[in-house]
Amino acid sequence: MPRPARPHRPGSVPPLPRPARRRHRARLLGAGALLAAAVTGCGTVGEPLSAGRTAPAAAPSPLWPDRSPAPTPTGEQHGDASSTPVPGIPAVPAGDIRRVDPYSVIKAEVAAHRHDVTGADGLDEETAAKLVSCSQEHRDCPLRTPVYSDLTGDGRVDLIMGIEMGEHFLGLRCYTVSDGRLIRIMATVVRPSSVEVSGRDLIVWEPSTTPHYAVRSVYSWDAHRRYMDLQSDEIRRTDAGTSSEAPEHSR
């Protein structure tokens, strides 16, 4: 027996018949689905979501283009450095640098540049005198333990040596073998807090005069010049004196 219709109260919305209520509910559900799609930015599952508007790419805009640029520096530059055969060292057997005595290498260089106090071969007199009698057994030898690593990328290890000098300075030198000859491919003086090898890069960390910052210098093999060239020199934020944070700016 059909249920009697409810009486309509004045001022209220009259109820819809059942078929009309179903059609009205379907329209509401459809509108809700469209609203959800508009909010999420995605019509179906699996489609990409919009990340919003992207700032337009722009080329660098030069400032004061009418001003004359600075002239190219003259005189001796760091870029003039190049590989140098080590004097007094015989041919390297089988091109294996491990068969070269590191102490003989340093002694040969000191003998060839005994009185150089500046430049790539510069050493203070006290350090040079100690190197003359340096050996693996000599405890007062300023030469740090030699390190072998492939810096040039030819699949063979190269030689890295550090010479300790006064006031925490370090003479940093690297060598490779080319055509059976021992070649020096880097020579510089640094004042490091640490020295690292990362792949084929030689990384030197030096303390900065600014607290919680350090200078990070990266040397890499330049096949054209055949030398370990300074690739980057930047100041990085450090965590309590360690070298673990991201760079803040370059110098």
From TrEMBL:
Species the sequence originates in: Streptomyces gamaensis
Give the protein name, as stated in the record: Lipoprotein
From the UniProt entry, list the residue stretches annotated as the region Disordered: 1-22, 51-94
